[in-house]
Amino acid sequence: MTKWLMYETLDSFGYTSKETALLSIPSGAVSIVSIISATWFAGRFNQRALPICILLAIGMIGGALMAFLPGDSKVGKLIGNYLTNCIGASLPLLYSWVGANYAGHTKKVMMNAVLLMSFCLGNIIGPKTFREEDSPEYTPAKITIVVTTAVAILFASVLRLVYYIENKKRDMRGLGLEHKVNQEFLDLTDRENSEFR
User: Fold this and answer.
1) Least confident of 8-12, 89-93, 113-117
2) CA 18, CA 13: separation in Å to the nearest integer?
3) What is the pTM of this model?
4) Which are the contacts of 141, defined by CB distance < 8 A and separation ≥ 6?
5) What's the rounded Cα separation, in Å, for the pair 197 and 180?
6) pLDDT exceeds 70 at position 175
7) Rounded to whole angstroms, how far apart are CA atoms 9 and 26?
8) How far apart are alpha carbons 133 and 135 in whole angstroms?
9) Could you tell me which residue, 81 or 175, shows the higher pLDDT?
10) How many CB atoms lie within 10 A of CB 115?
11) Packing angle of the helix pair 91-101, 49-68 (nearest 10 deg)
């Protein structure tokens, strides 16, 4: 959807196809820089929720720029379009978060499948929000980007809070303070393994 949105936005500005191709290059650069910097941060500080929320917030700002700037503000809308590439850049971190926060082979595979299906469903439904009658601005679709990204930030924040509370409860009960030999090979879920944090 992002590439289609990029071409639609640039096309509405009246650029040629060659100029559109050249102006879409920074989109890839934004994606690469945001993925590398967010994964570095997550690895360096062992923190996945914060960079996910930051990437989503940057993408939400981009969606807001595209949705709410006046039609003659080409540069602002273009920058907003570039910033929306941060939304997709959160996907590698989401897979990493699932891998780090679920234990047990079946549960981990299931959660990865749910994440993939959710991503695919979003890619199927997302372009449907760009309706012919909203052309050329597609303001309702751009507002949808802002709202869905805000909801994703809320869910990620709540999930991080739930993980924090669960870890504190386990620490207070003294669960997992003593390592049981070969417990990591028992295929226990995150709920069953008292050492899991």
Assistant:
1) 8-12
2) 13
3) 0.85
4) 129, 130, 131, 134
5) 15
6) no
7) 14
8) 6
9) 81
10) 15
11) 150
* Helices 25-45/2-12 angle, 10° precision: 140
The residue count of the chain comes to 197
Residue 63 to residues 57, 149, 156, Cα–Cα distance (Å): 10, 9, 19
Peptide bond into 136 cis (omega under 30): yes
Q: Is the pLDDT of residue 194 over 90?
A: no
Contact between 4 and 20 under an 8 Å Cβ cutoff? The reply is: no
> pLDDT tens digit string along 26-67?
999 999 999 999 999 999 998 999 999 999 999 999 999 999
SS3 sequence of the chain: CHHHHHHHHHHHCCCCHHHHHHHCHHHHHHHHHHHHHHHHHHHHHCCCHHHHHHHHHHHHHHHHHHHHCCCCCHHHHHHHHHHCHHHHHCHHHHHHHHHHHCCCHHHHHHHHHHHHHHHHHHHHHHHHHCCHHHCCCCHHHHHHHHHHHHHHHHHHHHHHHHHHHHHHHHHHHCCCCCCCCCHHHCCCCCCCCCCCC
Q: Read off the pLDDT of each residue in 104-131 and give the average, rounded to a whole number.
A: 90
User: What's the mean pLDDT in 72-82?
Assistant: 90
87-110 pLDDT tens trace: 999 999 999 998 888 877 788 889
